[in-house]
Amino acid sequence: MPTREHLIYNPARECMSRDELRAWQGARLAETVKREYENVPMYRARMDDKGVKPEDIRSVEDLKYLPFMEKTDLRDYYPFDLLASPRSEIVRIHGSSGTTGKPIVSGYTANDVEVWSEMMARTLTAAGCTKEDIVHVSYGLGLFTGGFGAYQGANRIGAMVVPMSSGNTQRQIMMMKDLGSTILCCTPSYATYLGETIREMGLVPGRDLKLKAGCFGAEPWTEEMRLRIEELLGVDACDIYGLTEIAGPGVAFECLEKHGMHINEDHVIAEIINPATGEQLPYGESGELVFTTITKTGMPMMRYRTHDICTLTDEQCACGRTLARMGRITGRTDDMLVIRGVNVFPSQIETVLVSTHGVAPHYMLIVDRVNSSDTLEVQVELTEDMFGDTIGHMEAVRKHITNQIKSVVGIATKVSLVPPKSIPRSEGKAKRVIDKRKL
Ligand code: ADP
Ligand code: ZN
């Protein structure tokens, strides 16, 4: 077992006092605002509208005077109008997996790629990765930031990296076994799929595979899902968070305490706001997460509204890091389903399903409107054992799930049990909601 120091990549930065950190952030925030004001006409106009000058922003306290940025800004100023550096300084483009319209793209300078690599080196180190490790990357390598992020982080540590990208699950597992991969990077939904396939191939993690930890993220998951993955793969499953606009994966990462994700606050400032009013909320309160990049030069983001909902805490973590932590993403301001006037987050339903014996962690939520009333159908997959079971027993499981959802979410749902393997598997981010009201 490595000692604790081996689990912190850059102690000088990850463990500095909160006062030191505030001072560091204030200085870099001031520089970034100046750069943005001078180079990005759209943001200059927005600051002028609010009557804010770059000189007004001197410390983290002043952040609240700055205007927000939104995902729509990246669409409206696509592809290069938000660059704060000359085009010739941009060495990389990444884009989000958005399914409609133009992708969201971000330009990275060499500096930005370095910053991001360091964030990912910290992330992997926190999960126990050293240069002795073999990092198996099943996040897609491409415009999507997941694969490149993990690849760069492993490179920075000097670990051996296997850039598998996504797809071809059996081959992934063969390589994992032959090479003796120790760290897995992929989405949590793909991790469960890998885990199931490993078992189907007659392999036993721990005996045939050497996996010890995984950095799983890019989509929301629950504590129950973590336990499932840890059991399936025999690993410590750590959460990792990021978004293309800010850096890619590694903006925040979990240490082995598995108690919230440390935010790389020497590179980004995090705020929680009331999504309705835009007002800052104190640590501990749940609201929309907002990021300001303070070391990025290509396409800095100022008070970027993520639409992700979570809480923040600056309580000291047992791992020794002083970096504040964000809780799991409990939903999105825009993905939140409103069903018969009730706010429903898919994560609430996932929690119920994953903790029910006999069902697999694969589900689909189908929302519709029948006779001007909203309906929610929860399709959930049975395990092989349960599928062969008596009708009476299956019906008991169905009733149990229906009651649990009713008590957690507060609305009645139609629960349908579907055969094993009938819900499409995803190699990247899982699509779990079909809202027919929007079609
Ligand atoms: P992509 O990741 O497909 O390139 P985005 O950059 O748009 O596209 O994805 C970022 C979004 O993914 C975040 O705003 C968040 O909603 C979601 N996400 C990323 N990591 C996590 C995580 N660990 N938990 C929950 N949601 C996450
Ligand atoms: Zn920690």
What's the SSE blueprint?
Blueprint: H1 11-14, H2 18-39, H3 41-50, H4 71-76, E1 90-95, E2 105-109, H5 110-126, E3 134-137, H6 145-157, E4 160-163, H7 169-179, E5 183-186, H8 188-200, E6 213-217, H9 223-233, E7 236-243, E8 248-254, E9 261-263, E10 268-273, E11 287-293, E12 304-310, E13 312-313, E14 325-326, E15 331-332, E16 337-339, E17 342-344, H10 346-354, E18 359-370, E19 373-382, H11 384-387, H12 391-409, E20 414-418, E21 433-435
Parallel strand pairs: 3-4, 3-5, 5-6, 6-7, 18-21, 19-20
Antiparallel strand pairs: 1-2, 7-8, 8-9, 9-14, 10-11, 11-12, 12-15, 13-14, 16-17, 18-19
Helix pairs in contact: 2-3, 5-6, 8-9, 10-12
The structure holds adenosine-5'-diphosphate and zinc ion.
Description:
- The protein is α/β, with parallel strands linked by helices and 439 residues long.
- The protein has 12 helices and 21 strands.
- The chain folds into 2 domains: 4-334, ANL, N-terminal domain (Rossmann fold), CATH 3.40.50; 339-435, GMP Synthetase, Chain A, domain 3 (2-Layer Sandwich).
- It has a 9-stranded mixed beta sheet with strand order 4-3-5-6-7-8-9-14-13. Strands 10-11-12-15 form a 4-stranded antiparallel beta sheet. A 4-stranded mixed beta sheet has the order 20-19-18-21.
- Strand 8 (248-254) and strand 9 form a beta hairpin.
- Helix 10 packs antiparallel against helix 12.
- The radius of gyration is 22 Å and the shape is globular.
- The N and C termini lie far apart (53 Å).
- Adenosine-5'-diphosphate (ADP) binds at residues 96-97, 144-145, 217-220, 239-244, 306, 308, 329, 332, 429.
- Adenosine-5'-diphosphate binds next to strand 7 and strand 12.
